[in-house]
Amino acid sequence: MQTISASDPAAVAALRDCLGTGGLAAYPTDTLYGLGVDARSDLALRRLIDAKGRGGPFSIMVGSVKRLAEILLVPPASVGNIGLMLPGPYAFIAPPRQPDLWPTLLTGGGANLGVRVPQHAFLAALYHGWDLPVVTTSANLTGRPALQDPAEIARQFGQQLDLIIDGGILPASRGSTLIDVSQQEWQVLRRGDGPFPA
């Protein structure tokens, strides 16, 4: 397991390489530290499930609202409103346009997929000129509190991780706000740090 500071000029390339080759990484997000893998890789998803202690559904992150709208089947009138709220601490949930592209391990066999666009400066840099859809789930064992300290993440997950991006100890967070946008009338599934209505 490698740990590298988020301020290190090599950190973005290290995370891209880790995720792009089936690795499991932890990194800071807008809210909590996240665990991430390539969202299209069954092998990587199995590693995440083993480490996390639960299966899907998991949300994914992408680099832009345009990419989110390409992935999710969202009513056209909703896309502009989603754009007003992103990037930020939200995950928007709807059926994917191409269900067969996404592994059952990711969706948990359900019909919907959650997608987020991060605001965190490190993740914005990660997605500059790069477009891998990455699972992002809170860095904790299922049923235990989410971890905000990279040193504690290293102790808890050990050699299950290939890489930790150390962004320092994050403040307490309720996580992302989850919103079902599959219909014209949105439904808040979980209230987190993202206010609603925005």
Alpha-carbon distance between the termini? 39 Å
Average pLDDT number: 94
CATH 2nd-level architecture: Alpha-Beta Complex
The unreliable regions are none
Structural class: alpha/beta
Annotation keywords:
single chain, 198 residues, alpha/beta, DHBP synthase, ten-stranded mixed sheet, 28% helix, 22% strand, globular
Helix-strand layout with pairing:
Blueprint: E1 2-5, H1 11-20, E2 25-28, E3 33-38, H2 42-52, E4 59-61, H3 65-71, H4 76-85, E5 90-94, H5 104-107, E6 113-116, H6 121-126, E7 134-138, H7 150-157, E8 163-166, E9 177-180, E10 187-190
Q: Mind explaining what this structure looks like?
A:
The protein is of the alpha/beta class. The chain has a single domain, classed as DHBP synthase (Alpha-Beta Complex). Helices cover 28% and strands 22% of the residues. It contains seven helices and ten strands. It has helices spanning 11-20, 42-52, 65-71, 76-85, 104-107, 121-126, 150-157, and strands at 2-5, 25-28, 33-38, 59-61, 90-94, 113-116, 134-138, 163-166, 177-180, 187-190. It has a ten-stranded mixed beta sheet, sandwiched between helices. Strand 9 and strand 10 form a beta hairpin. It is globular, with a radius of gyration of 16 Å. The model has no long low-confidence stretch (mean pLDDT 94).
